[in-house]
Amino acid sequence: MRRRLAWLATLALIGGWFYRDRLRTYLKEAFANVRAFDLPTAGTYDALVASALEGFYARVAEETASAFPRGRVLEVGSGPGQLAACLAREAPNVTLVGVDISEAMVERASRRADEAGLAGRVRFEVGDVGALSFDDGELDGVVSTLSLHHWPDPSRGLAEIYRVLKPGQEARIYDLAHWLWLPAQGGNRLSLLAAASPFGGGEVEVVRWPGAVPAFVLLRLRRKEEAGSSGRRIGAKEKTLNCSRRSARIDD
Q1: Does residue 136 carry a pLDDT above 90?
Q2: What is the dihedral of CA 65, 68, 69, 75, to 10 degrees?
Q3: Residue 189 forms part of a structural domain
Q4: Residue 64 sits in which domain range?
Q5: Residue 155 has pLDDT above 70, yes or no
Q6: 33 found inside a domain
Q7: Which helix (H) or strand (E) holds 100?
Q8: Residue 65: what pLDDT?
Q9: What is the CATH number of the domain that holds 92?
Q10: Phi, psi of 25 (to 5 degrees)
């Protein structure tokens, strides 16, 4: 028995020696996938990652509903639709469009919305943050969770978000804290991205979850009001007053 065990152990060592490079590559990829929240299937992601983050999504939905109580809101990187479902329940006056680059995620999210009876106010579509299908100034708000570190071109993504937001409205982008995000992909820090974007800057807040762990950050970006908008409103008011005065003179 001992000889058999020793023989098996020897074979395992020899096999491990020959396949060490392949094993090292596999373990490296698996570790990177877990760190980057990039699991092989939408179902696996939903079951493992999204389900584990239910409390986080509930918190984000509450904060987002407070920021966007009504109007049309875009979720970038909507994944399996957990945040969208929470947000739709928290903000009944909001209609929500979720965009994800994965067709499998969009199908899963759409099914979740249908089962929750939210299909009338929540829909999902395949799309890329770098080329959004919305008109300029169409949306009342944008939210994104744990998606930015996946974007191949974050600068282009922020420029597109700026374009589709109405003047004066806000984007709320939640992502991994820098100490998690930089090893995962090595991208620029959020503050630098915001400063280089059409927004011209933004506010970065630490999000402590779970408990006191600073695992996430929130980037808040606001599109400024158009420079001439207030002037145009004043001009219209003055025109009305002038017409009233002219009418008064005629009556006299």
Answers
A1: yes
A2: -60
A3: yes
A4: 48-227
A5: yes
A6: no
A7: strand 94-100
A8: 98
A9: 3.40.50.150
A10: -65, -45
Give Rg (Cα) of the chain.
25
Q: Which of 10, 140, 157, 22 is nearest to 87 (CA)?
A: 140
Q: Residues 130, 34, 107, 160: what is their CA dihedral angle, to the nearest 10 degrees?
A: -10
DSSP letter for each residue of 150-191: G-S-HHHHHHHHHHHEEEEEEEEEEEE-HHHHHHHH----HH
> Is pLDDT above 80 for 22?
no
**Whole-angstrom distance, CA of residue 10 vs CA of residue 221:** 59
Residue with tokens 């003055």, as numbered in its chain:
238
Q: If pLDDT is split at 50, 70 and 90, which confidence band does 24 have?
A: low
Tokens of 162: 């700026």
- pLDDT (tens digit, 9 = 90+) per residue, 177-230? 877 765 444 445 788 899 999 999 999 999 999 999 999 999 999 999 977 654
Contact 202, 219 (CB under 8 A): yes
Structure tokens at 147: 């998606």
Instruction: Tell whether the model's pLDDT for residue 57 goes beyond 70.
Output: yes
Per the DSSP assignment, residues forming a β-bridge with 221 are 171
